[in-house]
Specification:
- It is a single chain.
- 77% of the residues lie in helices and 0% in strands.
- Helix 2 runs antiparallel to helix 7 and helix 6 packs across helix 10.
- The chain starts with a helix and ends in a 6-residue tail after the last helix.
- The chain contains twelve helices and no strands.
Length: 280
């Protein structure tokens, strides 16, 4: 058994758990981390990067089980509970999921073939950082204080923003949180709606990719590496979720914009100095 490979899987799980819900692109940082460590072959890394996100999204389901269950029951019964509207949350999540499902299922293989590389990640990190600066500078009028208040129209627009996250380096959380802020959703509600919206998208993408490409995991050690990364990402994400909600309730995302831009510039410089090539 390759101990170094298992340690690398732990590191990758930590990277996923920390970055999944921050507006800095978990996929981008996972690709960069794998590239820097020489972690696995490209086909295995591509599968690992998608499937290990299941651990992080299970942390959301665990931490928000009560509200998610209310949303599910609201869809079934058509009833709202208290002042919030769990049925509205359920409907909004369905509407917001449709665009990325259509685009993702149609172009998943092409995206992985041509865009899963450090150069694409670097460019999108920089572009995303500049967009964060722009949105944070804009005057904001709050139209939805809680995730349950997000209208179907706003949900559809957030879902369209989420499609941009299919490009590595964009950040699913970044696209949905910043997009929601742009549309007038409060900071706390933007973060939580983004968490919830990740459930159908990440679970669907992870299970589909595992079903389509499971043959690249040729040994029990391969499956162990994937399992370790997934479990570690669950534990780390569980520790990060509440911290992020507390953070966005008090502060803006400027620090993450700087982090994205600095990382992107470093990768582009490395590509120039050390000769990274586009893959695909």
């Amino acid at each position: 058994m390759d101990i170094i490979l298992l340690i690398q899987a732990v590191i990758m799980g930590i990277v996923e758990g920390i970055t999944e819900f921050l507006p800095i692109s978990s996929t981008g940082y996972m690709i960069l981390s794998a590239d820097a460590m020489g972690f696995w072959s490209k086909d295995k890394v591509d599968l690992f990067v998608v499937v290990v996100q299941l651990g992080a999204i299970l942390a959301v389901i665990y931490d928000y089980w009560g509200r998610l269950w209310q949303a599910f029951m609201g869809l079934l019964t058509g009833k709202a509970a208290g002042m919030s509207n769990p049925r509205q949350l359920g409907l909004s999540l369905i509407v917001a999921t449709i665009p990325v499902m259509l685009v993702g299922f149609t172009f998943a293989d092409e995206i992985k073939t041509y865009l899963f590389n450090p150069i694409t990640v670097a460019i999108m990190l920089i572009i995303g950082g500049l967009l964060i600066f722009y949105v944070e500078k804009r005057p904001k009028t709050v139209i939805a204080c809680e995730a349950e208040d997000v209208s179907l129209k706003t949900a559809l627009m957030i879902g369209l923003f989420q499609c941009l996250a299919l490009i590595p380096g964009t950040s699913r959380s970044g696209a949905t949180i910043i997009g929601a802020l742009w549309l007038g959703v409060s900071r706390k509600a933007s973060a939580e709606f983004s968490f919830f919206l990740g459930i159908p998208v990440i679970v669907g993408a992870g299970l589909l990719d595992l079903a389509k490409h499971h043959e690249v995991l040729a040994s029990s050690e391969d499956w162990l590496v994937l399992a370790i990364g997934t479990v570690v990402s669950f534990i780390v994400a569980l520790l990060c979720i509440r911290w992020l909600v507390a953070w966005v309730s008090r502060r803006d995302f400027t620090i993450f914009a700087w982090l994205r831009i600095i990382t992107g510039v470093i990768v582009l410089l490395a590509s120039w100095l050390f000769g990274y090539q586009m893959v695909g």
